[in-house]
Design brief:
Number of helices: 4
Shape: elongated
Largest sheet: none
CATH topology: de novo design (two linked rop proteins)
Helix content: over 70%
Structural class: mainly alpha
Organism: Candidatus Roizmanbacteria bacterium GW2011_GWC2_37_13
Pfam family, one: 23S_rRNA_IVP
InterPro entries: 23S_rRNA-intervening_sequence, 23S_rRNA_IVS_sf
CATH architecture: Up-down Bundle
Order of helices and strands: HHHH
Protein name: Four helix bundle protein
């Protein structure tokens, strides 16, 4: 049963990274946007990559370290999403808000995993 949960989050983070790539391909390629897009693409993919690494961790310490990185990358992705320029195009603004919401949900999920760790220790 727990493998199903891991798989669902792995799939969800993969789909998020794909959605980010679709989104950035529609953005204007200004100098500033180009640099922000590069950062966004990296951090969005890193969320899932680190989650996969967490699931393959050799120790609990390594697992929680990777989960912290996934949470950090979600937070960073949210930052870059807020920075990229959409030229006030409504469809891109809406898509950005959806992606920002997804990063917020990832942060809550990973935060909840880390909180369970803290509760187990005390």
């Amino acid at each position: 049963m727990s493998n199903t949960k891991h798989y669902d989050l792995e799939e969800r983070t993969l789909n998020f990274a794909k959605k980010v790539r679709e989104f950035v391909n529609k953005l204007t390629k200004s100098i500033a946007n180009f640099e922000d897009i590069k950062q966004l693409v990296r951090s969005s993919g890193s969320i899932g990559a680190n989650y996969i690494e967490a699931n393959e961790a050799l120790s609990k310490k390594d697992f929680y370290h990777r989960i912290k990185i996934s949470r950090k990358e979600a937070k960073e992705s949210r930052y870059w999403l807020k920075l990229v320029e959409t030229d006030n195009k409504k469809d891109l603004e809406l898509r950005r808000e959806e992606l920002i919401q997804e990063t917020t949900e990832f942060m809550k999920i990973f935060g909840s995993i880390l909180e369970k760790k803290v509760n187990k220790e005390f």
